[in-house]
Design a protein that fits this description.
This protein is α/β, with parallel strands linked by helices and 741 residues long. The chain contains 26 helices and 13 strands. The longest helix is centred in the first third of the chain and has 27 residues. It binds uridine-5'-diphosphate-glucose (UPG) and manganese (II) ion. Uridine-5'-diphosphate-glucose binds next to strand 3, helix 8, helix 14 and helix 15. This is Cellulose synthase-like protein G3. It is found in: Endomembrane system.
Length: 741
């Protein structure tokens, strides 16, 4: 550790090799210049709106200008938040190859990995097992490595899968290290170049047989006798009595592998593998994933108390066994360790189709914006793929919030075996339903409660407290996860995020009030995420108002001949072009970008809007929202359609209705406008922008028309949805004609 900063006193010692470097991105000066020019253009637009408002000749034109003004204010606000993330983008590099100059492998700090799962049917246990195996096989001293699985589904099926995983690990881990395999998730490995190694075939057979057993047990919904190999297992599974339900059960903590005893087939120690399902009762609030993680922080504190914690979703598997060493490049630097709370890797996805029709990559959220936030304060936490210093969960960098028990202190040294009576008893105690009562867990300690996007909310709170973080984006992706491949799953996920973001915006820690006082630019950058729920305002207005106006022969934008037209052209093309360039620079394709902007519109019209409604209903006490887990189980037919790039509507959902309405309204207005012009009843003059907008929306709406009229597969639009969507369009048209005429 010493010498890292080159503070040695001997004459001219060679400078120590770096563990990490950071530099400002080359594009920053361009971004700043563009921001300046664009700001002037935005001001000019507001001047135009103000003038139109002042000189409006009727209530109607006043109302239309007001709608446009409000929409443009929302757009401009979101634009300024994005600029906060463009002013200081940084690029970091790590040099794990230099690590051995500072620290020997035996001295590596311990690492506790948390894997969350919550439902054996939406999150197939075999995938969770694959995730666990990929991190158990980290190229890291196994006596320093512990993997904790949190099962909020309280499912014996998941536990069964992990008893199988424990057995398979003793073959899989030595196989990976002996052959220096990079791809240590068995499923991903067998799908790629597995035949290169002599034992591959045997490993594959073993894997398939394990998978078969796990899947059969899940299918049958219980662990039958033939799958139980010893009395110990029988005893464990017998905890699932008839009274044991997902919402109501005692804590189950099962040590499946103990690194002080268990060895793999080549005689090396295996890492710890611990299954945990915290106590649940209907009478207490469990705070969803945040609650699960806080329980794990305490359970692991009692059992191993590693100073570094990796938090993973059940679908996020490791793609690079060297990742922990990369993380040590930061955490082993004492200066970094004092103030840097976590190291976040981007969420990247496997299994997306070629053009990523649902924009599941979230390129802006996970790749383009984080280096910008990193330049201000540190990249944000995304719930998965984040390595934390345990200390970050216990107060600010300068003042520690002391835990309730000395054993929970992040600096406490565990000196008892993890299976000792005392340790297990304490682990049960700290994972009980009532442990958090009257404590500041979720308030000042651990993951913060109160928002369904506990990840963004917590990292924002940590940043406000003074913690910094690192966005680490190595060339070989550290992790891969899965994104939903059915539109309704995407929508439901986005609806939940919307509710969570609104909970954040309307909390006492809102980025526009609390945060601005703490760290203005950083908070403004967080607003770019937190204020997603205001996208529906401009998107809905631009999807319907110009079109209704066109249908009623009203011109609401400057005509082409007017110099103001240039302003509109610049604002539209400027924003879109910058976005496209950034997207492509982040390894995107033009087609992916096109799909991404389409999904932005779709989310705005639908999931964000429904999320907004849900939030209002929740606030009024009319309904409550839970954490509806994203479905990760896929059906073959659906996969095939997804591979072909077809949108999956398939179910009748109110969330599809606005899409139908908007698609038809634009088609109708464009068609009507065109026919009027062709017939010579009116000229293009004055409605050019409205025609262009409708045309743009029509091109974007292709998958909706296709799903309504041209497809016969099970993913097509349900007739009910189409009918309601069409009905709504006519109602809007009639109302519009009544008002606008
Ligand atoms: O009560 C719960 C609900 C969920 N989970 C787990 O949380 C993870 C994320 O859930 P998922 O349904 O996949 O949500 P997504 O919206 O896909 O996840 C993103 O958004 C979440 C909320 O912001 C973050 O927690 C995630 O890390 C992030 O990947 C999964 O491993 C679940 O098993 C729990 O452990 N307990
Ligand atoms: Mn997920």
């Amino acid at each position: 550790m010493e010498g890292l900063r080159g503070s040695s006193t001997t004459a001219n010692p060679p400078p120590p090799p770096p563990l990490h470097t950071v530099q400002l991105m080359r594009r920053v000066p361009f971004n700043r210049l563009f921001a300046l020019v664009y700001t002037v253009a935005i001001l000019a637009l507001f001047y135009l709106h103000a003038r139109n408002l002042y000189y409006s000749t009727s209530l109607l034109s006043f109302f239309i200008t007001l709608c446009l003004l409000i929409s443009d204010l929302a757009l401009a606000f979101m634009w300024t938040t994005a600029q906060a993330l463009h002013l200081r983008q940084i690029r970091r590099k790590q040099f794990p190859e230099n690590l051995n100059k500072f620290i020997q492998r035996n001295d590596y700090p311990s690492l506790d990995v948390f894997i969350c799962t919550a439902d054996p049917y939406k999150e197939p246990p075999i995938s969770v097992v694959n995730t666990a195996l990929s991190v158990m096989a980290y190229d890291y001293p196994t006596e320093k490595l512990s993997v904790y699985v949190s099962d909020d589904g309280g499912s014996v099926l998941t536990l069964f899968a992990f008893t199988e995983a424990a057995k398979f690990a003793s073959h899989w881990l030595p196989f990976c290290s002996k052959n220096n395999i990079k791809e240590r998730n068995p499923k991903a490995f067998f799908e790629s170049n597995y035949f290169c190694f002599p034992e591959s075939e045997i490993m594959k057979t073993m894997y398939e047989s394990m998978k078969g057993r796990v899947e059969t047990v899940v299918e049958r919904g219980k662990v039958e006798d033939e799958y139980i190999t010893c009395d110990e297992e029988r005893q464990v599974f017998s905890k699932w009595t008839d009274q044991f339900t997902r919402q109501n059960h005692p804590t189950v903590i099962q040590v499946l592998l103990d690194n002080s005893k268990d060895k793999d087939i080549s005689g090396h120690h295996l890492p710890n593998l611990v299954y945990c399902s915290r106590e649940k009762s209907k009478a207490s609030h469990h705070h969803f994933k945040a609650g699960a993680l806080n329980a794990l922080i305490r359970i692991s504190a009692v059992m191993t108390n590693a100073p570094i914690i990796l938090s993973l979703d059940c679908d996020t598997y490791s793609n690079d066994p060297q990742t922990p060493e990369r993380v040590l490049c930061y955490f082993w630097d004492p200066e970094v360790r004092a103030t840097y709370g976590f190291i976040q890797f981007p969420q990247l996805f496997k299994g997306l189709n070629k053009t990523d029709i649902y924009a599941g990559q979230f390129k802006r959220l996970f790749q383009i914006h984080p280096p910008g936030l990193d330049g201000l304060r540190g990249g944000n936490f995304y719930g998965t793929g984040g390595f934390f210093s345990r200390r970050v969960f216990f107060g600010t960098p300068s003042t520690m919030s002391p835990p309730e028990l000395p054993q929970l202190n992040p600096y406490h040294v565990v000196n008892k075996p993890i299976q000792s009576q005392e340790v297990l008893a304490l682990a049960h105690q700290v994972s009980g339903c009532h442990f958090e009562k009257d404590t500041d867990w979720g308030i000042k300690k651990g993951l913060r409660y109160g928002s369904l996007v506990e990840d963004t909310y917590t990292s924002y709170r940590l940043h406000c407290e003074g913690w910094r973080s690192v966005f680490c984006n190595p060339e070989r992706p550290a992790f891969y996860g899965e994104a939903p491949i059915s539109l309704i799953d995407v929508m439901n996920q986005q609806k939940r995020w919307t509710v969570g973001l609104l909970q954040m915006v309307f909390s006492e820690y809102s980025p526009i009030t609390y945060g601005l006082r703490h760290n203005g630019l950083m908070s403004h950058g967080y607003s770019q995420i937190a204020f997603w729920p205001i996208w529906p305002i401009p998107i809905t207005v631009y999807a319907f108002l110009p079109q209704l106006a066109l249908l009623n022969n009203l011109s609401i934008f400057p005509q082409v001949k007017s110099p103001w037209f240039l302003l509109y052209a610049f604002l539209f093309l400027g924003a879109y072009t910058q976005d496209l360039i950034e997207f492509v620079l982040a390894n995107g394709t033009v087609q992916m970008w096109w799909n991404d902007q389409r999904m932005w519109i779709i989310r705005g019209l639908s999931s964000f809007m429904f999320g907004f409604l849900e939030f209002i209903l929740n606030s009024l006490g009319i309904s409550t929202t839970g954490f509806n887990v994203t479905n990760k189980a896929v059906d073959d037919e659906l996969s095939k359609r997804y591979e072909k790039g077809l949108f999956e509507f398939g179910v009748a959902s109110p969330m599809f209705v606005p899409l139908v309405t908007a698609a038809l309204m634009n088609l109708f207005s464009f068609g009507w406008g065109l026919s009027e012009i062709v017939k010579g009843k009116r000229s293009m003059e004055g409605v050019e922008i409205q025609m262009l907008l409708s045309a743009f929306a029509v091109v974007n709406s292709w998958p909706v028309y296709e799903a309504m009229a041209l497809r016969s597969d099970n993913g097509r639009m349900k007739a009910k949805t189409s009918v309601i969507g069409i009905g709504l369009m006519w109602v809007m048209y009639a109302a519009g004609s009544f008002i606008l005429k």
